[in-house]
């Protein structure tokens, strides 16, 4: 039986493992942290939890057209819940609904002409079936033309500046197209949260004979195969791999032999682990969420984009305005979310320091906000949470079949021009697994 290793138990790794075990391959997933799920993983409060469901460290939902992850959820028997939560924006010192053409038309923060202009521009973008060709334009140049200067300045520039900070000038229009073209008003979630779905996927993999090894950080991956060069010579020829080569070649993952390996970890980590693989040098932002578990309802809707200059966070999200708070001991769970460049001062602050920084701004959203009503504070940070895609990135996006024999690549920066998301993670995980199955069966 052919053996395949998967590095990383996020949605890409889990989906590729499901496809491989379904086709009878022997699969081992290696995960550095103590649980599967990656960026979509969840947590319970450390003590005396009355929560029935885990909460994602980073706010998560799916769109109703996220067919790949919904198909996977059905396969493993995880029910999908469809909800219609409200998305608002904080602008002109109030929460304003701005999640449909009608609510956009009602928004009085810009002229009627600008609202219509913006509506038409967004509708045009949504109609484009494949927006990859837009990658030659930067958002900072093209969006004011497409959506109108006023709409861009009051809405989109604020969002983009808050998200990308010093990198805003790099972001290309294909990425923006990917964001707006996929959005649906109804949103999906999974029974038990994304963690509930992950649990079901892990059970499925294990039932089919696969192994999911947590707390197993991989340090080295190397090919033992020789490959003929055009001149008849060989490369990738480490002297100590001769025995393995004669035994059928393959890849050594921390010295354990596999026929192939899928690397689902961020590009800079792949480069550290495997010699001979180079990703394009792009910038990444850290993801950071401070989560307040509170008895107070602070927001009117599920989601609140902050369209103000110089706020210390860019979004507020209350899980309890999306999913019934009975699953979380009756609490509201309010995320204060940020994307931050490496070295940013907030990345060095404690959760208490962040709360002190944020509190005056939370009070602007809800003047009744009281720190005394907070039961728990949680803080999560991850590097490589958001890749920044510059113009003409497609030419540099690497192939899934890497130049190192037996090593396959499938990670978040490769789902471009779509923005990272669990649906694309699943789609790419399945694609890379099919490529491996085909290659190994034809070897
Ligand atoms: C703030 C935020 C909000 C988001 N919201 C949504 C949303 O609403 N909906 C949605 O669909 N998506 C959302 N996403 C994106 C989504 O979380 C990711 O696209 C998806 O989880 C990526 O999965 P992945 O498997 O490619 O990568 P990851 O989830 O990053 O998984 C990689 C795994 O590899 C492990 N690993 C790393 N190095 C090693 C090593 N050396 N050895 C072994 N294991 C290793 C890591 O621990 C990790 O578990 C959001 C992301 C963020 C940051």
Overview features:
single chain, 443 residues, alpha+beta, FAD/NAD(P)-binding domain, protoporphyrinogen ix oxidase, domain 3, Polyamine Oxidase, Chain A, domain 2, 3 domains, seven-stranded mixed β-sheet, five-stranded parallel β-sheet, 32% helix, binds flavin-adenine dinucleotide
What does this structure look like?
Helix 4 (112-127) packs across helix 6 and helix 4 crosses helix 7 (173-182). The chain has helices at 11-22, 67-76, 101-106, 112-127, 139-147, 149-164, 173-182, 193-207, 242-246, 267-273, 351-365, 422-441; strands at 3-7, 26-30, 42-43, 55-56, 62-63, 80-83, 87-91, 94-97, 187-190, 211-213, 221-223, 227-228, 234-235, 251-253, 256-258, 260-263, 284-294, 303-306, 315-318, 332-340, 374-387, 407-409. A hairpin with a 2-residue loop joins strand 14 and strand 15 (256-258). With 443 residues, the protein is of the alpha+beta class. It has twelve helices and 22 strands. It folds into three domains: 3-80 and 192-282 and 397-441, FAD/NAD(P)-binding domain; 100-182, protoporphyrinogen ix oxidase, domain 3, CATH 1.10.3110; 283-387, Polyamine Oxidase, Chain A, domain 2. It has a seven-stranded mixed beta sheet with strand order 8-7-18-19-20-17-21. The two termini are 13 Å apart. The radius of gyration is 23 Å and the shape is globular. Helices cover 32% and strands 22% of the residues. The structure holds flavin-adenine dinucleotide. Flavin-adenine dinucleotide binds next to helix 1 and helix 12.
